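To: structure subgroup
Subject: Chain for Friday's discussion

All,

I'm putting the inputs and outputs inline so they're searchable in the archive.
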Amino acid sequence: MTGIMNNEVRTDTLSNGLRVVGRRSDGNVAYIGVAVNAGSRDEPADREGLAHFVEHTLFKGTKRRKSWHISNRLESVGGEVNAYTSKEETLIYTTAPAGNAERAIELLADIIRNSVFPAGELDKERGVVIEEIHSYLDSPSDNVFDCYEELIFAGSPLAHNILGTPDSVMSLTGGDCRTFLDTKYTPDNMVIYAVTPDDPARILRLLERYFSGLHYSVSGLNRSMPVEAAPFDKVIDKSGHQAHTILGTRLFGRLDERRYALFLYNNYLGGPNMSSRLNQEIRERRGLAYSVDSTVSLYSDTGTLNIYAGCDRENTARCINLIRNEIDRLAQGPVSERIFARIREQYRGQLLVRSDHREGSAMSLAKSMLYFGRIIDATYTARRVMELTREEFLEICRLVASRSLNRLTLQ
């Protein structure tokens, strides 16, 4: 095992090659989890929803524990074990009061190494996941994003939604789950994080004890960049009162250094603040939409900028025109030095405020190592944002304005 100290963050490697990242905290809670570089994008073509189904059924039984014993292992001391799946990652995480680190580590190792996917439990969980699918279908503000990604990533595994379909979920077997676990949950494809009040050396010894037996094999990831989809402008009528519209375009992936300027652009254009350009122009000044915002989704080799607006049907065209106008205005010339200083400082502050969420920050350490092989935390990102020039910002403004904006509306 090796260890390196890096600005209070420790990075280590277990004897089987599994990477570990963490730091000693001053709190009363231990945050320990496993990030896996595998998600819905990495499923076999005929097994949509498998990554998410595995995440659900990991907790349904191991060689030595039944479902109840898994959930009760940390709940009995006031903690929890949980998980989520995205397009390119799965994260299994625990929170527990200080003093329970070994309990959490042993549990994580058990469900990753020894899950048996009991047939009866799988049958029950299929019903749970299918209900989750129907709940998304009943929510057009959620469903519109899945429908949009089916179009903008057409022909790629990124196109299908994370949950799969009722038919695909019904076809999944325990063997499918075990194969996915064996080929994707491998030491080269995972990072463990541990942010606890415990002695880091003790945590490392525990991780070596419980995780070093995980077999080492090269993960079965086989990703290829999605081809550029044909431009689309589509309306799907579902006889709803409100229209849900996404305007968006394909951009670069998460490794591109222009991402910092893109993050700043997105925050200024339609980020999660009342002062964003789109919120001020569409909601505050004109009252045309209840919700309008923009988001950036970056993957290993591609990404999207998406702008969502929820409004009455008759206001859809006006909202779309106003969005396009704001994008064009930003591309016409550099913002003033005063405005640029303000928007950088605002975004920097948001990053630092969000970083105060201890569990989220702990997870971010693991994802940073998983994707970049080094620590890129909120402090580093905030510094990179403050180093941006107006010219770099304008380059992103013009890049977005030069792209064809695809549109999907569910109404």
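Points worth raising on Friday:
Residues 119-137 form the longest helix (19 residues).
The chain has two domains: 2-211, 233-410.

D.
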